[in-house]
Amino acid sequence: MALTQDQILAALKSVQDPDLHQDIVTLNMVKDLKITGNSVSFSIDLTTPACPMKDKIQREAELAVKKAGADEVTVTMTATVTSKGLGNQSIPGVKNIIAVASGKGGVGKSTVAVNLAVALSQTGAKVGLIDADIYGPSIPIMFDVKDEKPGVIDGKQLVPVEKYGIKLMSIGFMIEPGQAVIWRGPMASSALKQFIGDTAWGELDYLIVDMPPGTGDIQLTLVQTIPVTGSVIVTTPQDVALSDAIKGIAMFKNVNVPCLGVIENMAYFICSHCGEREEIFSNGGGSRTAGVLDVPFLGEVPIETKIRKSGDAGVPVCLSDPESETAQVFLNLAGKLAQQVAIRNAGTAETQPVEILFK
Q1: Could you give the CA distance from residue 59 to residue 131 in angstroms, rounded to a whole number?
Q2: CB-side neighbour CA atoms (13 Å) of 64
Q3: Residue partners of 38: CB distance under 8 A and separation at least 6
Q4: What is the distance between the alpha carbons of residues 329 and 200, in angstroms, rounded to a whole number?
Q5: What stretch of H or E contains 74?
Q6: Local confidence pLDDT in tens for the 359 residues of the chain
Q7: Is 224 in contact with 354 (CB distance < 8 Å)?
Q8: Cα dihedral angle (197, 198, 204, 207), rounded to 10 degrees?
Q9: Burial class (CB in 10 A: 0-12, 13-18, 19+), 62
Q10: Domain holding 339: CATH number?
Q11: Are residues 26 and 172 in the same domain?
Q12: Rounded-to-integer distance, Cα 168 and Cα 127, Å
């Protein structure tokens, strides 16, 4: 007896998306179902190409259809990144805007932002990166594009610099190397608004914003200018850094921007001679802080010489040494971040630009 479409869909209803807690049929993830005798083919359209549960979902789908009587099952995994409505002032074509922030400087926030952007791009996502640290731009160095300048369309819109498939904007492209940006807050805020609203970003799944440290003008300008999908807070394990990380999470919470997760940078060091793990700055503070504040903990990044070397050379470690353990750490972090974005888009109300009134 030939298999029917209803039988196959009924079988696939046993396969759950572990993040969204519904079956893949109800979530409309099953596409292009074809049945030829006892051979079945279909695709599963995930919410992100960086989905860390992709292989598990594929295996469960194959097994479910074989249990229904199919002799041959072909499953193609695809992805369409989800987006929540981003209010009336969203950037055309940009699905998700993610602020990578920290309560204080020196925690490696830009290193994390750069490698998250590259790792997301490596999964097949379309990614852009704004260097919002107006006074201390580092993206031109970390992508080895110090001498590049953005293009201009009709004298109105900026065209991002592109490197490694990632679209980039930074004040570092507008000034000479070594030149200091000596601006008051309103001028810095104006520059960020231009990067956001006057740049031809095109179609992007994720726009990462590498924030300056603290909770000042730039942070307020960002949330007033565009509705941010969520924030990622970068910290190191020391109590002083964790205290500031808590303030960063609180700031975004106060302006209704959900925290997508905490990343603990410089969490440990592996000795290259003996292989022993050393926790130079203590360890586990990021996880504990995330637990206390009830926000996701995305993971730990080690202190490693190759991360520093790759940043200085302008080739992020995910590209310079893609098979390394460190590159895999960032790929895992990117997967967990994409996972949190999908969960946020499925279960949280639309974000809106924030209006901040001063008395």
Answers
A1: 40
A2: 22
A3: 2, 3, 69, 70, 71, 72
A4: 32
A5: strand 72-79
A6: 678 999 999 999 999 998 888 999 999 999 999 999 899 999 999 999 988 889 999 999 999 999 999 999 999 999 999 887 655 456 889 999 999 998 778 888 999 999 999 999 999 999 999 998 888 889 999 999 988 999 998 878 899 999 999 999 998 888 777 777 777 778 888 888 888 888 999 999 999 999 988 777 888 888 888 889 999 999 888 777 788 888 888 888 888 889 999 999 988 887 777 777 778 777 777 888 888 888 999 999 998 888 889 989 999 999 999 998 899 999 999 999 999 999 999 876 666 656 654 44
A7: yes
A8: -60
A9: middle
A10: 3.40.50.300
A11: no
A12: 9
Q: pTM of the entire structure?
A: 0.89
Contacts of 152 (CB under 8 A, 6+ apart): 158, 159
Query: Of 179, 155, 151, 181, which Cα lies nearest the Cα of 167?
Result: 151
Q: Could you tell me which residues come within 8 angstroms of residue 100 by beta carbon, excluding any fewer than 6 positions away?
A: 109, 112, 113, 116, 208, 209, 210, 211, 231, 232, 234
Task: Quote the domain boundaries for residue 99.
Answer: 94-347
* Number of neighbours of residue 313 by Cβ within 10 angstroms: 14
Q: Which of 13, 48, 79 is the last residue before a domain boundary?
A: 79
**Based on the domain organization, do 55 and 117 belong to the same domain?**
no
Number of domains in the chain: 2
Residue 282 inside a domain? The answer is yes
Among 46, 79, 112, identify where a domain stops.
79
In a domain, 88, yes or no: no
Question: In 3D, which of 118, 41, 31, 114 has the Cα closest to residue 80?
Answer: 31
Buried residues in 183-221 as b, exposed as e (16+ CB within 10 A): eeeeebbebbeebbeebbbeebbbbbbbbbbbbebbbbb
- Taking the C-alpha atoms of residue 236 and residue 279, their distance in angstroms, rounded to an integer, is 11
Q: Are 35 and 184 in the same domain?
A: no
